[in-house]
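Proteins fold. Shown next:

***
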Amino acid sequence: MELDYDQLILLDAEDLAETGIGSAYDQLLPELKRYIPNPGRIEQVIDNDLPRYAIRSNGEEYVIYAPDTQENESWGAATYVFFKIVNDQLAGTDVRLYAINGGNDLGGLFLTPEQAKAAQLSLPNPSDWPYLPEAASPWYGQHH
């Protein structure tokens, strides 16, 4: 199966980590509404004095960075949190938002698990495979 890269939603992990989750979520909402009628709200909690950046969604708070966070950890945390918030809402559907690539090249595609598996079987390079981000560094779920 070939992935339809024309449907790729460009995200960029660095942008997400630098207080960009809210705008990325807003950009994603029209597509997300195709799968769920009432997507949840998110709230960005930004304290530039510390510095600290967190996201609140569905009664949970997720810290993206705080004074003791390494930069490369914030990129992974932002990726994980963004996809978790979206995919938790998709739990009752047959699709998930899968990550494509990572870092500055991060994007997302709505796929069924079967489509993701078929893409993995057809793409020779594991780093090109669609994946569901995890909270584990250093690759946060991306295949290598």
